[in-house]
Specification:
CATH architecture of the largest domain: Alpha-Beta Barrel
Structural class: alpha/beta
Number of helices: 12
Oligomer: single chain
Order of helices and strands: EEEEEEHEHEHEHEHEHEHEHEHEHHHEEE
Helix content: 25-40%
Distance between the termini: 25 Å
């Protein structure tokens, strides 16, 4: 019998509305007991973790991660992504299907699940593509992939531009009760762009991405989901107007959820003016007004989830010119510290709201009923945080890649222990 006792930590659980000093007893991979002053006999064989002054939260569920396997193993693998996640307090991730080949069949999904069970330190769940090969032409065998245990469908990296195909996919996702995650970008508008259309792109004379590329897809998809009464999830929201649309949709009773990423509430287009390609991402960095809108959306519930959109790339690829370098940054290891530093400690959101955004809401959306909470009977996926630990983001990561715009930035609130099903997978 495996036992773990975490003592004297400030337990924060959004589902149970807990924010107080408690002990947590873990047995056989589950939360056994949550109480003050749990004492055990010395011969019990239980490992005791002293967590005085620390925050103890459910393991983070990151529902937007590129593990790059198969096809991109030089930049990341399922194994290395799991190590990076554990170092960031993340105990469950949803892997995106834009691999090579794309995860567009039950056979590929089954192989990936088997590989994750063998190699991963954490829980890795998989999404399947909406369209075969992510080509946006023909619907993938979603029913077969659903039987193979995918947790969502998405063509992430591309929006589904064919409205009839998206309509079919929304109907099927509703029938199967599986989330449909939509990449919010009209490729006809954004084609060739590398920076937000604004003063920086004009000054640098670089091809721009108009914010309408995001806004139009959000509007189209929300209206389509409303007409079908189908649920819809919008990925990596970055624009003020998108948030306003989502707020109106929710008030109208439309079943839409949305996520944003730490870079969209911490960085602006001015940060990309250095032409450091670690500031090149899609959607692109926006403006201070957009950051303010995102923070408001996180606070008032318009935005439901914070995800990393962890997108590792080789140094050789990111060393190319700003126009030729690929979009994307890594984020598994810095997401929590950015949320604490920029949102919690600056009193934009509460600790409870942080747990809703990082743990409870993504677990609920993906149907992970035993995740996202530390109540008795739940899986013992736990993150212990030192809120006062303030360090600069290092150059070296657990990820195989290091394309982060936050290297050297001082952040507070780092994980000191991560446990998955009661097993410690990271300790600092």
């Amino acid at each position: 019998m495996t036992k773990l006792l975490i003592k004297n930590g400030i337990v924060i659980d959004a589902r149970a509305d807990i924010n107080e000093k408690l002990d947590i007893l873990i047995e056989n991979g589950q939360i056994k007991r949550l109480s003050k002053n749990i004492s055990l006999k010395k011969e019990s064989g239980t490992e005791i973790i002293q967590a005085s002054g620390k925050w103890v939260i459910p393991g983070i569920v990151d529902m937007h991660v590129h593990t790059r396997e198969p096809g991109g193993e030089k930049s990341e693998t399922i194994e290395s992504a799991s190590k990076a996640a554990a170092a960031g307090g993340i105990t469950s991730v949803l892997a995106m299907p834009n691999t090579n080949p794309a995860a567009d069949s039950a056979e590929i999904i089954k192989k990936l699940i088997a590989l994750a069970k063998k190699k991963a330190l954490i829980n890795i769940f998989f999404s399947g593509t909406i369209s075969s090969g992510r080509e946006g032409i023909k619907l993938s065998p979603v029913k077969a992939m659903h039987k193979a245990q995918i947790k969502a469908i998405t063509d992430d990296g591309s929006a589904v531009m064919d409205e009839d195909l998206l309509r079919q996919a929304l109907k099927l996702s509703k029938k199967l009760n599986i989330p449909l995650l939509e990449h919010c970008e009209d490729s006809h508008i954004s084609a060739g762009g590398v920076l937000n259309e604004g003063i920086v792109s004009a000054r640098l004379k670089l091809p721009a991405i108009a914010r309408e590329a995001e806004i139009f897809i959000v509007l189209r998809d929300v209206l389509l989901a409303a007409s079908l009464r189908a649920p819809l999830h919008i990925q990596h929201v970055s624009c003020k107007e998108s948030i306003e649309l989502l707020r109106c949709a929710k008030k109208s009773g439309i079943r839409v959820t949305a996520e944003t990423c730490p870079h969209y509430f911490t960085l602006t287009e001015e940060d990309a003016a250095s032409l450091n390609t670690n500031f090149k991402m899609n959607p692109p960095l926006r403006t201070k007004k957009d950051i303010a809108a995102i923070k408001k959306g996180l606070k008032d519930g318009t935005i439901d989830i914070i995800a990393s959109d962890h997108a590792p790339h080789l140094k050789s690829e990111k060393k190319k010119s700003f126009i030729k370098a690929p979009f994307g940054i890594i984020g598994l290891e810095t997401m929590l510290a950015l949320v604490i530093s920029e949102l919690v400690l600056k009193k934009v959101i509460s600790k409870k709201r942080m747990v809703e955004l990082l743990c409870m809401n993504p677990a609920a959306l993906l149907g992970l009923k035993s995740k996202g909470s530390i109540m008795p009977g739940m899986d013992a996926d736990i993150c212990v945080i030192d809120p006062l630990k303030k360090i600069s983001v290092p150059h070296k990561f657990s990820s195989k890649s290091s394309n982060s715009p936050f290297i050297g930035r001082k952040l507070s609130g780092w994980p000191v222990l991560t446990a998955v099903s009661g097993k410690i997978v990271y300790r600092k």
